[in-house]
Specification:
heterodimer, A: about 375 residues, 5-stranded parallel sheet, 4-stranded parallel sheet, 13 helices, about 40% helix, B: about 350 residues, alpha/beta, about 45% helix, disordered N terminus
């Protein structure tokens, strides 16, 4: 890990909580001090429990405190998951031996072992998801409570699957806990950064080309699937996107863009802007490590440190910045579209999607509107920030 | 267990960061894993945006890895300090985390060896019986210790504003308004949006106004250090303003009779404005955990003529009691919305 930085991405402990708290019927206990509890609790907007350990428990052992919290939860039904934070992880306690009589899911995912996606993967592996060959339909994966688009993504992909007559299997990770052990043998994704690895992967749903390819796979993989309505919708809606972008290009030059997001969302944003707006993608900064072997046609670099992000934005001077509230003030003259947390610039009440047809429509709508607002503001002398 | 321990009283590190990151030319080094810094960086920045002042907090992490945790993080801290100090900030604040206290890094020793700008260590391990408030107090005391003697002035210090509070600027505006009614101005907001050199003004005030009574140890420290008296909190609730004016006037040796009379008249005007709520049945939801908040809310409800009933309309009661008439008026609007919605 680089020194002397200001990290812009949550730690592995938060990732583990994002995974497990997505399952109804799992009570997630953050085993650590109060500070480690409050961040995932506020980021994920999910009910979490904490042991809130104190000094004496660090010195004399935290087992009694952990048992106390678990005891309080044991009457509530469902399964208990314990996620260890940095301090318990170095204390050397054998927590699995402490809790032999309970069906406790123990996830060793302290913050210092990595970032969000690492913890998510460790937690999902601890849950030991299984496929059920008799279960029909297709799983949806790539869902993380840390993603501001997760609710919209589930709703949008579910809508498309229903149009094609395909039942939804297990949603990783936003489902009943017991569904993790009864996933269908086929999976489609909403965000490859949180891929489940469960079942045979048929493709993603980020962007119209990916949706089309995935539903072709579904037609050939699941007997009785009729995706013709989906294909019709994709054709019709893509025409609308092309029309709106073409109209924009009649008056404006394509934007130069810097993108900051998880690797999957960043790649989607870059491809979409290149394809529909002929945008100049000046820089793609990924918060996480892109999957090994993934090729990209853009200048891409891991950028999860504030200083590095500031440097790249200064050097690339884009017209349009896509990222989080961290990037927004660094380029006050640029148009901005939020893609990853924190997103504090405006009130958000709807469950917006990034995946599916609706996701692309909403994304391009935001891009075009913010770029046009910027162009209009340029013509008004004295407009702040322009 | 230390006597101050409370499991759910928040993170000491976050409390201290809410103070030190308000020193505009300072840099804060958080000695621990990157996650601790990210959590707080994200929280502080999101709060700053919510409060309409989107300033990036100047935070740097030593980003301890698993290897550092095993072999010790003092070298990593030393390297980070060197890089940070090379940029000549006004001050460097070094804050500890749970894990470095557990592995036993000697932060004081690493920091003592540094020269070139003030390096201020604030002990902030969350699990050590501390709390969010302990972090705030530790940071205020650490910063106050750097202030030297100052020539006496005629202004008033505002001590320990809740920088993560959504209404922080509105509450400050209300207190400033009251002080101006007595002909007083603010000498220093300790600590909100100030430069390191301004800390030197700390001892120049004729009175310290504490944000709330949890800051009494800070008030006592400043009294013993500079001889400055203090009032223990911002005005709370409908009657708080006149009481606050009287207390400040007395402490500063000012005749506040006219200011108190005018403010009491405003209190009556405000109650009259919300007379339409009289007789409505209400239920506090949730019941404020803080006794002061409960008392202030009950007092306000009684004065506007609300009835308490289990079947009453649930009305919001803030965890932190409303400050002054301005805060009370905003709360009454929320109650009216809830009752007549």
């Amino acid at each position: 890990m680089p020194e002397c930085g200001t990290p812009l991405w949550p730690c592995a402990m938060t990732g583990a909580a994002a995974c497990l708290a997505g399952f109804e019927g799992i009570h997630v206990v953050i085993h650590g001090s109060s500070g480690c509890y409050y961040y995932p609790s506020t980021l994920l907007n999910a009910p979490l429990y904490g042991t809130f350990i104190l000094e004496n428990e660090v010195v004399f052992g935290s087992d009694r405190r952990l048992k106390e919290v678990i005891g309080d939860l044991s009457g509530k039904g469902g399964r208990i998951a314990v996620i260890t934070t940095c301090v318990p992880a170095v204390m050397g306690e054998d927590l699995s031996a402490i809790l032999p009589e309970n069906d406790i899911l123990l996830v060793d995912s302290p913050g210092f072992c990595g970032e969000l996606e690492t913890g998510y993967r460790v937690a999902l592996a601890a849950l030991s998801p299984k496929t059920d060959p008799d279960r029909k339909g297709v799983n949806i994966d790539g869902v993380s409570l840390s993603d501001p688009f997760y609710r919209g993504n589930i709703a949008e992909v579910t809508r498309l699957l229903r149009m094609a007559g395909v039942p939804v299997g297990t949603v990783f990770c936003r489902d009943w806990a017991e569904m993790a052990a009864h996933a269908t043998p086929l999976t489609i994704g909403t965000n490859a950064d949180f891929a489940s690895g469960v079942g045979k992967f048929l493709g993603g749903t980020l962007g119209i080309p990916a949706i089309r390819a995935t539903f072709e796979q579904l037609e050939s993989g699941i007997p009785g699937t009729d995706a013709s309505q989906v294909f019709d919708e994709l054709d019709a809606q893509e025409e609308r996107v092309i029309g709106a972008c073409d109209r924009f290009l009649r008056r404006h030059t394509p934007p130069s863009v810097a993108i900051f997001a998880g690797a999957a969302y960043a790649e989607y944003a870059a491809e979409t802007l290149k394809n529909y707006l002929d945008a100049e993608i000046r820089f793609v900064g990924t918060r996480n490590d892109p999957p090994a072997g993934r090729k990209t046609r853009y200048r891409q670099e891991k950028a999860n440190d504030f200083g590095l992000v500031a440097d790249r934005l200064q050097k690339t001077a884009p017209d349009l910045v896509i990222g989080s509230a961290f990037e927004q003030p660094l380029c006050p003259d640029a148009a901005f579209v939020g893609l990853i947390p924190p997103l504090q610039d405006r009130v958000r009440l709807t469950h917006a999607a990034l995946a599916g047809t609706g996701g692309t429509l909403r994304f391009m709508e935001e891009i075009l509107n913010t770029c046009m607002d910027r162009e209009k503001a340029k013509k008004v002398p004295g407009t702040p920030g322009v | 267990m230390p006597a101050s321990s409370c499991r759910t009283a928040g993170c000491t590190l976050t409390g201290a960061l809410s103070v030190v990151t308000q020193v505009t030319d300072g840099v804060t080094v958080v000695h621990g894993p990157g996650g601790c810094t990210h959590h707080n960086f994200s929280l502080l920045y999101a709060t700053a945006i919510d409060n309409g002042r989107p300033v990036i907090p100047s935070l740097v992490s030593t980003n301890l890895s698993e290897t550092d945790v095993v072999f010790g993080g003092e070298e990593a801290l030393g390297r980070v300090l060197e890089r940070v100090m090379a940029k000549r900030p006004g001050a460097v604040f070094v804050l500890s985390t749970c894990i470095v206290e557990t592995i036993g890094d000697d932060i004081e020793k690493v920091c003592r060896a540094r020269q070139g700008c003030p390096v201020i260590v604030v002990p902030t391990a969350g699990f050590l019986g501390g709390s969010f408030q302990a972090g705030v107090n530790n940071a205020l005391l650490a910063l106050a210790a750097t202030a030297g003697p100052a020539d006496p002035g005629c202004g008033v210090n505002v001590i320990g504003e809740k920088n993560l509070e959504y209404e922080v600027e509105e509450n400050y505006a209300e207190v400033s308004r009251l002080l101006s009614m007595l002909g007083l101005s603010v000498n220093l907001r300790f600590v909100r949006n100030i430069a390191t050199r301004e800390i030197g003004l700390l001892g120049a005030a004729r009175l310290n106004v504490l944000r709330d009574p949890s800051l009494v140890p800070v008030g006592e420290y400043l009294r013993s250090r500079f001889g400055t008296p203090y009032t223990p909190g911002f005005p709370i609730g409908i009657s708080g303003n006149s009481a606050f004016l009287a207390a400040v006037a007395q402490a500063c040796g000012i005749d506040g009779t006219d200011a108190v009379r005018r403010e009491r008249a405003r209190e009556m005007e405000l109650l009259e404005e919300f007379r339409d709520l009289a007789g409505s049945g209400v239920l506090f939801s949730p019941i404020p955990p803080d006794p002061e908040g409960r008392i202030a809310a009950r007092d306000l409800a009684r004065k506007v003529g609300l009835r308490f009933s289990d079947e009453g309309c649930p009305v919001p009661v803030p965890v932190i009691p409303p400050v002054g008439l301005a805060g009370t008026e905003r709360l009454l609007h929320r109650w009216r919305r809830a009752i007549f919605a």
